[in-house]
Amino acid sequence: MSSFRLTLERRQQVSTLRSTTTYILGLLLGLGFGLAVLLAAGAPAATLLDDLVIQVFFSSMGLAQTLTLAVPLILVGLAATSAMRLRFWNVGIEGQLWLGAIGATLVALSDFGSESLRLPTMLLASAIAGAAWIAVPLILKLRAGVNELVATLLLSNVAYLLLQHLLFGAWKDPVNSFPVSPRFDDSEQLASLGFGNLHSGIYVALGITLLMAILVQKSRTGFYVDVIGRNRTTALATGIPVTATITLMILLSGALAGLAGGLIVTGVEHRLTQTIGINTTFSGIVIAFIARFNPLAVLPTAIVLAGIYNAGGTLKVFYGIPDSIVVLIQGIVLLTLLMVQFFRSYRVSLIRQSAPQSSQPST
Amino acid sequence: MSQGSPLLTLSAIDKSFDIHRVLNSVSFELARGEVHALLGENGAGKSTLMNILIGVYSADAGKLELEGKPLKISKPSDSARQGIGMVHQHFRLVDRLTLTENLLLAADDHPQLKSRAAAREALLSTAKEIGFTLNPDCQVGELSVAEKQRAEICKVLALGARILILDEPTAVLTDSEASSMLAAIRRMAESGRSIILITHKLREVVGFSHRVTIMRRGETVAAGLDTSDLSIEKISSLMMGSSSTSLSPDGINSKKAPGNIQEHGPDLLAISHLNARRDDGAPALTDVSLRVRAGEILGLAGVGGNGQHELTELLSGIRSASSGSVMIDGADALGLSPRQRRKLGLRVIPADRMASALVSDLSIAANLSLTSVVSGRFGRLWLNRRRIQREAQASIEQHEIAGARPSGRMGLLSGGNAQKVLLAREIDSGMKLLLAHSPTRGLDIRASALVHQRLREAAAKGAACLLVSEDVEEIMALSDRICVISAGKIMGELPGDASAADIGRLILGHE
């Protein structure tokens, strides 16, 4: 009588080569599964390469649209990175993004400040609003030990209700039948770069990526974050300002998400709508994980993901494939990547057991 | 013990990591029913050899035989099935589970232990057999380090180990606990089990082992010598090689400076009427008062788990007191953050360095520079990473931290070298008060001697040292004054030349 048995063992050492190959393999495998799902959903195999790669990255209009979509994705990717480096789960990125959009719109609709400084004021307001929205779960976590997963997630729902409350009420555009705010003035819009819908917000995103990279890799705070994220007791015992660092990085996370909302309303929509920023929590976390929490790697990752979103739009229009397929593909890629990471550290083997071994431990 | 054929034979074992050859044709032989001491300094290859035996590593070359038959071990479960068990220095226990649950978790290959009642019973009977008391329903996380170790030993034995590898079993025990532990080891051997005892305490080797194998730099320098033919001096010279200086049994090679008891300066640490609670709310410290003056080492002796852990956490600033006061260099420190206390000159070497002083996932340079980064020495806003690397390199060379590169991962260093990193970082020019808790736990003779030398130098330079240790020999060798803690209370104070018996009487006096 023989039976099989699955065993699991931790590898003694993981080489850089193994680490890199498993990562790339995981990514490719995930994309492969994603493609299979796409084909199963009815996307035509013949034009898939064209739809997924050529049209979104190598055609002028397609690339412009991909980059436009990438702007908020870069920021939410950085927002997730900022929190995840401290092992803080910010799953309320959408909520902070909506608050950011509301903050920018508030400045625009109330004609706050001088017209020449209106746009920077709007962006600043969006960052502050986003930071304020995450301040609530942050305080709950630091003061009362409330799990940030629950608090950030639930506050997102509150943010969405607030958004709808404004769009169906006080801020509803009287000349529009849809629940949208009045259109912003020209001085309240980011400059178009004359390349599709692409706007000057891309410079903001690039600049912030660079600043984040410097913060994480060169600053004293970045060093503190590395220690706190890995061993909080040591951080406390060696006198690292743990609470201050966490507060700074988490407020930054909320501010970046809020700024993403600000850039969407000032750069693309030019008004507040209820469709902005959907799924950005998920995308932000996916980007941060794939980029391994490295700000510079967030940039290409966000652009590739934007390409998939862009292609998703095409697939929806031409083949009637629901755009939730894009979220599905993201999920598949992330899960595959994480599962393959497991095989990086563990060896799994299937063992056939025949008769019991002759030498049993004596008791 | 040399009669008959050996139970276990390891012959001509080679092992390299990358380009580093850590084992070079090593041989080892174990007889049935013997206690076989395996000796060597840190990095001599003892742990690697044992890891090969239990299937964590595989040998590059060489042969393993059990009862004359080739033994193929490619993974830990293979060795467990053959009845080979190891009790590591870092315990293989899940904190959130009870002892019984930990045994159930490990009992994959033991159908007879599959029920909770059977596992519980097995633990209790094992504990009884070797003279331990333990509560199988207690969560492991609530146990002291010493209790965890007893639990781990019972677990491995309950799983039916007939060859038991003990990696420094007495490193965390006090003298009285250690003797009962060693007596238990002898009983296990008499009942037919074979014990491989890895230890740094030569007195234990001479008193409790049948045979000795000594390793140095990845080679066997003495294989299976009869202990009765050996003296401590002989063993220590074999271990240390020809460059050996004469070492006393526990690696303590210099006496306290005579008469320095009168030379001490002002109180750098004054603790008065301090009370604190444990995590579970029970009192940990009751009305503790201590003072440590500049230039002296105050030894705080006692059995582990009697409030030492809470006291060191409290002094470091990561645990709060319920009442009392702590003055560091004349300043009221209880309300201060760890950072402010460091500014007053407090430096800490905690008992569990990897948990609360070092970061194993970061580079050695990051660990060496950690507190200087906090004090702003490498820049307030931006860090001078190049200078961090450069100073780390200099520090590694100055303190002879073997196998370390500034960019290397901290977690890959051996215990002795990790402690060197911590000493290099903590003993700096700003130090006024040094708090050291079990600073030589798990270190070999040479590393322990180095730690002791550093503590003495620190005191000689005018620092106040509070040495909290469960090792009475260490306390006796270093302290100018000795206090004893038991059940969270200070039981009394003795002069530095007090005898072990006097200290022991105070330790036990309360029980």
UniProtKB/TrEMBL annotation, chain A:
Cell membrane listed as a keyword: yes
InterPro entries: ABC_transp_permease (IPR001851)
Keywords associated with the record: Cell membrane, Membrane, Transmembrane, Transmembrane helix
Regions crossing the membrane: 21-46, 52-76, 88-109, 121-140, 149-171, 191-216, 236-260, 272-291, 298-319, 325-343
Subcellular location(s) per record: Cell inner membrane
GO cellular component terms listed in the entry, alphabetical order: plasma membrane
Record organism: Marinobacterium mangrovicola
Pfam family, one: BPD_transp_2
CDD domains per the UniProt record, alphabetical: TM_PBP1_transp_TpRbsC_like
GO molecular function: transmembrane transporter activity
Chief place of localization: membrane
Protein name: Nucleoside ABC transporter membrane protein
The keyword Nucleotide-binding appears for this protein: no
Membrane topology, from the record: Multi-pass membrane protein
Domain of life: Bacteria
Automatic annotation (TrEMBL), chain B:
GO molecular function: ATP binding; ATP hydrolysis activity
Keywords: ATP-binding, Nucleotide-binding
Annotated ABC transporter domain residues: 8-242, 269-507
Domain of life where this protein originates: Bacteria
Protein name (Swiss-Prot/TrEMBL): Nucleoside ABC transporter ATP-binding protein
Organism, as annotated: Marinobacterium mangrovicola
Lineage summary: Bacteria, Pseudomonadati, Pseudomonadota, Gammaproteobacteria, Oceanospirillales
